[in-house]
């Protein structure tokens, strides 16, 4: 029997549809070319600068296991299909990313120590041809300080929200339990890997959400 759609899927689906409907259709070439020195060139540069000034911000938080990284039966790890390219696209668009993931609190008494232990655990079993993009996440790797903080308890999402600095918050994970919990706290939540939908929330949708669309 098919499981009913989660609240976060329904809300996010409506948001995606509204944003995509508002986006202009791109030309096959992506833009009209102008000869060097053409007045339109300077106008486009000025428009780009103004757009940059207006551009908002968003932080895209992810679960790790079975969202960005897959653990095989032999316990080796590698990127989920499309995850490496998706992270690269977010990086190219200057969209910040973070991890909200459960690890044993005994791995360290700070987020930094637990994150270092997590990196070692993932890297020692990594079989992907492309290393995991730890640099993209910087110090935005949140892990539970106690068992009580482990997801789906709200503590980690609340901690991320306190440091949002006004940016729009997105959370992507493979389970409806987690996306529903994040949505209840005001995140734009997206359940990855669902049929008939993009594997991840499209980057251009995130940009428009950041701009308040």
TrEMBL record:
It comes from the Bacteria. Keywords: Signal. InterPro entries: HAD-like_sf (IPR036412), HAD_sf (IPR023214). Residues 1-31 form the signal peptide. Transmembrane segments: none annotated. This is HAD family hydrolase. It comes from Streptomyces nanshensis. The lineage of its organism: Bacteria, Bacillati, Actinomycetota, Actinomycetes, Kitasatosporales.
């Amino acid at each position: 029997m098919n499981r009913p759609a989660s609240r976060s899927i329904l809300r996010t689906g409506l948001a995606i549809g509204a944003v995509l409907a508002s986006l202009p259709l791109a030309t096959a070439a992506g833009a009209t070319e102008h000869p060097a020195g053409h007045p339109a060139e300077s106008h486009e540069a000025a428009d780009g600068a103004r757009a940059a000034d207006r551009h908002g911000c968003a932080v895209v938080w992810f679960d790790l296991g079975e969202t960005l990284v897959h653990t095989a039966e032999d316990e080796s790890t590698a990127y989920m299909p499309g995850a490496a390219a998706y992270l690269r696209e977010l990086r190219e668009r200057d969209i910040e990313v973070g991890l909200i993931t459960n690890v044993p609190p005994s791995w360290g008494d700070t987020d930094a120590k637990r994150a270092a232990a997590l990196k070692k655990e993932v890297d020692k079993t990594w079989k992907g041809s492309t290393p995991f993009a730890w640099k993209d996440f910087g110090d935005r790797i949140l892990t539970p300080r106690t068992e009580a903080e482990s997801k789906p308890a709200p503590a980690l999402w609340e901690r991320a929200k306190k440091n949002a600095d006004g940016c729009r918050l997105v959370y992507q994970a493979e389970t409806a339990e987690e996306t529903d919990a994040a949505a209840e706290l005001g995140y734009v939540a997206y359940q990855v890997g669902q049929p008939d939908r993009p594997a991840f929330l499209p980057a251009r949708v995130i940009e428009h959400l950041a701009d308040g669309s």
